Amino acid sequence: MKSEFEKLMERHLGPRGVLPENQINAHLGDEPIMRVGVPQRSGALALNATLKQYPVMVSANAYWDPKKQCFNIPEHTPLIDANVAVDSAGFVAMMLFKSKGLQSGMCGVFPWSYEQYLTFANLMRPAWYSAPDMCCEPQAVSGQDEIDWRIDATGTLLEGCMRVLYEWQDQLAKGGCNTQTITDLVRIPVPIVQGWSISDYLASLELTLQVWERWQPWVAPPALMGLGSVCRRDLHHPEHGLFAILEQLEGRLPKGTKLHLFGVKGAALDRVRMYDFVASFDSMGWDYGARRQALRSGMSNTMGHRIGKMNEWMSKATERMRPKAGDQFRLSF
After folding, report:
1. Which of 44, 49, 72, 277 could form a disulfide with 54 if both were Cys (CB 3.0 to 4.6 A apart)?
2. Are 245 and 225 contacting, i.e. CB atoms less than 8 angstroms apart?
3. CA 182 → CA 19, 110, 248, distances in Å?
4. Taking a C-beta distance cutoff of 8 angstroms, is the pair 240, 233 a contact?
5. Which residues of 30-49 are buried (b: 16+ CB within 10 A; e: fewer)?
């Protein structure tokens, strides 16, 4: 029997919906994909990526208006038709924090709040979006104590996001929304594992899974997790090389969970595509290469030059990721 309070609420709000369960944070294909980093909200680079049908990675920082202290999503952008994923701008936020000091948003590092970031990420209607994280590259940290703090802070940021999202979905359920509407309007993020050395990443993975498991069965085990801070490192180093880290994480990921590698080097693709638990990669290496080539050649780094380098980089990356005769894919255990 319904209480008088429940009957009263139904008269005003309609029947209460039910909160979703076992929500998936990303829907993945069978083949790994490369996402090209697009540093603009719209314009020629975004248009080229869309016309070429490249999967895209965009940074939240590109959409932030520091004067108005809000996100600005263009009404008209070609990226609306692209396969887009959203990065929380961890490295950029850290470098801005180092130069500008205490910020008004999350953890005093980001200029935006939980609510602002999560609203932006969901309004973008991406294929998936990352939970905010604290990068651990040597350029951004002053020692192991700070790395440890950033790993803990990344877990705290994930917990904060989950609390906000749960409250939003609960409010929608109280308003009578069905589970399909709720999961369409408010989506679950991709958690990020951070660190510099193998031991850092293992500690971050353990903490991330502890946070995530607290919210099950409201959410399913993560279909996708992100591996942060991988672009500015020696690929082969035994302690902080990408390959060593991947091999240590492999047997510790939840069953069925795959990884997205943020900022992976093109030189790594021949090997990392052999890992069946790696779902995707992204890179801004093409734009860095365009700037360096223009500087060496004494030429202007025009938009046409940048578009050409984007297409060249993606063509080479796509070729490296294709199956080849003699491939020996690693077996999962």
Report:
1. 49
2. no
3. 8, 27, 37
4. yes
5. eebbbbbbbebebeebbbbb
Mean pLDDT for 108-132 is 95
Q: Phi and psi for 37 in degrees, rounded to 5?
A: -70, 130
Q: How far out from the chain centre does Cα 327 lie?
A: 29
**Which residue type does 226 have?**
G
Nearest in space to 116 (alpha carbons), one of 125, 103, 128, 106: 106
Is this prediction's pTM over 0.85? Answer: yes
- pLDDT value for 10: 56
Instruction: Write the single-letter amino acid at 57.
Output: M
Q: What angle do CA 43, 48, 53 make, to 5 degrees?
A: 130
**What residues form DSSP beta bridges with 70?**
65
Q: What is the per-residue pLDDT across 40-67, written as a single tens digit (0 to 9) for each?
A: 899 999 999 999 999 999 999 999 999 9
Residues 13, 167: Cα–Cα separation, whole Å: 17
Return the residue matching tokens 């993560």.
Answer: 222
Q: Burial, 72: exposed, middle or buried (Cβ in 10 Å; 0-12, 13-18, 19+)? A: exposed
Q: 135: Cβ–Cβ under 8 A, 6 or more apart, which residues? A: 90, 91, 94, 150, 194, 228, 229
> Cα 322 vs. chain centroid, distance in angstroms?
24
3-state secondary structure of 184: helix
Residues 6+ apart with CB under 8 A from 304: none
Instruction: Return the axis-axis angle of helices 144-174 and 114-123, rounded to nearest 10°.
Output: 70
Dihedral class, residue 132 (left if φ above 0, else alpha if ψ from -120 to 50, else beta): beta
Given strand 258-261, what is the order of strands in its sheet?
128-129, 84-87, 56-59, 33-37, 278-283, 258-261, 224-227, 192-193
